[in-house]
Design goal:
YdbS-like_PH; 37% helix; transmembrane; membrane; YdbS-like PH domain-containing protein; transmembrane helix; 192 residues
Amino acid sequence: MSQRGNQPTMEYDETEGNKSEADTATQAEAGTSSADESFLLDDETVLVDTRPTWWGWTGYLTLAGMFVGLGFLLTFVELAAGLLAFVPGVLLVGYVWYQRIYQRYLVTDRRIIVATGMTTRTTNETWVEDVSGLQTKTTSFSRSRGYGTITVSHTVTPSGFGLGGDLQLQGVPNYERVAQMIRRRQSERKGR
């Protein structure tokens, strides 16, 4: 129970009995909880709360591993040269960690939200009923690992998606399930 003004309000999870194992696993894997986020509406239900998958950073992490390995080998020849090669690898790992940890994707019963930042929080969002188009994109590598990119748009042109109205969720784990959930919510919200 929490206090708002002078009136007590009861807080509860409407999806407690309806939460699938996949939703629970997605939230547990991401280590996230959206119960304390100020950008959520009081009566809004979070359906998906996830972060970009580590697999999306494979190229960066491979490059970082090569720098660290080279740095380790060069320390046997000369310490300064080893450290010179080691530092970019550590910086790349730090960059990947920051990009993944401080980016969240939330799909609620009303909105799609991309929240980024550590000390400064930025949110980009769209109302589910305002979505005109939804696009999923994956490569054979990402498809085999179960992640992809979801792009939702307010405008669809004959040549594809319009500029400026797109909200992109990159490296979404279980992207097909998340896209299907957005489609279902959109259909429910538009009453079709």
